[in-house]
Structures are given as structure tokens and as C-alpha cells.
Please model this.
Amino acid sequence: MSVIIAVDGPAASGKGTISRRLAKHFHFAHMDSGALYRLTALAVLEASGDPTLEADALSGAATIDLSRTGDPAIRTGEIGVAASKVSAIPAVRAALHDYQLAFITNPPGDSKGAVMDGRDIGTVIAPHAQAKLFIEASPEVRAHRRWLELSGMGIEKDKTMLLAEILARDEADRTRPISPLRPAGDAALLDTTNLDINAAFAAALALVSPRVEGALKERHRG
Ligand code: CDP
Model:
């Protein structure tokens, strides 16, 4: 059985970077589940579909191109907003559930474990995960981080607009009836507002390490 670290949190909270670094540290595989919703949104918009319509969103989910996970085209605000729309459709979540389950059950590359980040990993996708984190940060700090991230990809965007987008997406993600963004009851909470990425990673590692090391020992014994 693989060891799972579930990392959830709102947009630009630092969960992606922390997850990638945790995966590297433990030699685990990593999946950014948000990319699946973003790829679905991209497929819908490229087919001139409507991300709020179940039929359009479902054909988007059925045609996602995983080789485009690193494509900056899925990181735009427009795709983020459309991703939030398709992600509120239960049939889309069901369609993308299998990818996520397959990944954590049999992580690629013979890894002993998987780190998955998103909105509902600790609550819905992997409620049995051995370690769970819920990463937070103030909306202003998150808007600044997203601005830096986009600038690094050559995408220029006004910071006030980014903040408005983040607040709207937070609200939509937290209040939707299906798989809303919320910490699992057994998740460790980490507020990264005043932490740079190295300090945030150190804090995340300290929170998950005892559980992950314990689970790895048990896996070895079992
Ligand atoms: O990168 P950022 O944190 O802005 O967002 P993301 O993780 O790429 O996710 C984009 C959108 O997909 C989110 O606003 C959610 O609406 C949705 N999502 C979700 O519903 N469930 C997940 N496990 C991951 C993302």
C-alpha cells in the first residue's frame, strides 16, 4: 500500500510548491489535481464550449491532454475561473476521480508514496491519507504570490484584479455543494502568510514527517 500525503488549500497558498518539495524529500510521486480541472477547462474553452454546461464540461474531461500539464496556457486567470466552474459539476468530479485514485494507489515510478494537492484530497479523494495538510495564507499575500508566479511565466496581470479573482474563486470553491474546500478534521493547519517558501516547507515537513516515517516503517514491516 502506498503512503499518501494529502495537501489542500485555496489558490496560491503555496500548496503546489510545498507538495513538490515534500515529494522530492520523500522520493514520492506528485500530482497537482488542480491541473486536471484546468486541463478540462482548457479543453472546453478550446472547443468553444460553456464550462457551466455539464455536457460540454464532461466532453472536456474526457479529452484532457495530460502532456499539457506544464503548459502556461492552463495557468491564466481565465482558465482558473473556468476550472472552478467545471469543478462544481458532480459528473466532472466523478470523471476525474479515477485518475486521482489510480495515481495514489499505484504511484508512478515504483514510488512508495504519493503527494497530491488540491481542494478535496484529504476529505474526498484520500480520506485515509496517512498525513494531511491544509495550507492557508492571507488573500493579499496569495495575490502577490500569484502575480510573481505569472510574471515568471511572462504573463503580466494587475495585482488588484488577481486579488479579486482569488477572492471570487475562494468563495465559489468554499460554498459549492460538492467537495467544497475545507480542512479535513484530521488535517494539520499551516498558515504561510508570514513564511517564505523555505520556512513554509520546513514547517510542512515537521508536521507530516512523524506520520510519514511511521507509515513507511509499517509498510516495510507489512
Ligand atoms: O493553482 P490554484 O491554487 O489557483 O488552483 P488549482 O489548484 O490549479 O485549481 C483550479 C481550480 O480547480 C480551483 O479553483 C478549484 O475550483 C478546482 N479544483 C477542485 O475543485 N478540486 C481539486 N482537487 C483541485 C482543483
Remarks:
- The radius of gyration is 17 Å.
- The mean pLDDT is 95.
- The chain is about 55% helix and 10% strand.
- The chain has one domain: 3-221.
